[in-house]
Write a structure and sequence with these properties.
The protein has 315 residues and is an alpha/beta fold. Helices cover 44% and strands 13% of the residues. Strands 3, 4, 5, 6, 7, 8, 9, 10 and 11 form a 9-stranded parallel beta sheet that branches. Strands 1-2 form a two-stranded antiparallel sheet. Helix 10 packs antiparallel against helix 13 and helix 11 runs antiparallel to helix 12 (287-296). The protein is globular and about 55 Å long. 48% of the residues are buried.
Length: 315
């Protein structure tokens, strides 16, 4: 599969862009374990244009994680174009347009999946961003706003006509949020459309490489993207079986990278979310108390000490 000139190989598995999740440490580890491509946290176009420091920091990428995409969201055409130009200067391999985030603070304001209620503006943003930058532009969206508006088969062609070079489809509507099961049948229909010539990447309910294999075989997609199943589990992209000690070593490394590359406060903030969600600790009796301690930790050494106690309890 290729996005422009970027060759991701056969059956690539990609890390989805997720706010407060796909920080630089996590991306670097996912890449090391086999992710074909990774994405930064999605960033607000308005905040980038206003030069909000915390948002600008999200544009920091490393050559070790390439190929890497930066995803932007917004509802204003001019702001999205200006943000895309700012992102281009950060040097990613791809600029991705977020037309799929369902959360109220994004979609409720007309951005993200909210764009599914204003297709003309979605297409205008896409066309103008494509025209404004030299990097490949891709998009991520959903099947439609709700079950009465399953528009993805037509929308995919329209976005392709605007010049995007790949399309990721989450197999849910906005109204579903993250509930119910992802419906891949329409994703497969888009892929089988003879008028579609860009790569189609499927997303939704992929919890393992075996799930990804089934999606490739059943729906013929060009790529598969994994989202929530990666929390605290960067090794999900590897077929290698890690020991418990190795997994805890990886989580400790993630913490160290984030503290070094971001700062201690935000590095810990990002990492402890992964720790609290990681399947590694499911065997610890009364883990709830330990989880609370993880979520309250404010110093790197304190969090490392909690991880070492977990290691001992699991042996």
């Amino acid at each position: 599969m290729k996005i422009g000139t970027i060759d991701l190989g056969e059956r690539p598995v990609l890390l989805a862009p997720m706010e407060d999740v796909t920080d630089i440490g996590f991306r670097m580890l996912c890449k090391r374990f086999g992710a074909s491509m990774v994405y930064t946290e999605f960033v607000s176009a308005e905040a980038l244009v206003r030069d909000v420091k915390s948002t600008v920091k999200k544009l920091t990428i490393s050559d070790e994680e390439r190929p890497v995409g930066i995803q932007i969201y917004g509802r204003d055409v001019d702001a999205m174009v200006e943000a895309a130009k700012i992102v281009e200067q950060a040097g990613p391999d791809v600029i991705d347009l977020n037309f799929g985030c369902p959360v109220k603070k994004v979609a409720g304001k007309g951005a993200g999946a909210g764009m599914l209620q204003n297709i003309p503006k979605m297409l205008e943003i896409t066309q103008k961003v494509v025209d404004a930058v030299s990097l490949p532009v891709t998009a991520k969206t959903r099947l439609g706003w709700n079950f009465e508006q399953l528009i993805i088969t037509t929308l995919a062609e329209q976005l392709q006509d605007c010049g995007i070079q790949a399309l990721t489809i989450h197999g849910r509507t906005r109204s579903q949020m993250y509930t119910g099961e992802a419906d891949w049948t329409l994703i497969g229909e888009v892929k089988r459309n003879p008028r579609i010539h860009i790569p189609i990447i499927g997303n939704g309910d992929i919890k393992s490489l075996d799930d990804a294999d089934r999606a490739f075989a059943t729906y013929g997609v060009d790529g598969v993207m994994i989202g929530r199943a990666t929390f605290g589990c960067p090794w999900i992209f590897s077929r290698q079986q890690l020991t418990l000690d190795e997994k805890i070593d990886v989580l400790e490394e993630q913490l160290r990278i984030n503290v070094e590359r971001i700062d201690e406060y935000r590095g810990i903030l990002h990492t402890r979310r992964h720790l609290a969600a990681s399947p590694v600790f499911k065997g610890i009796p009364n883990f709830r108390e330990t989880r609370i301690a993880m979520l309250r930790a404010e110093k790197k050494d304190d969090l490392l000490a909690i991880l070492e106690r977990c290691r001992e309890e699991l042996r």
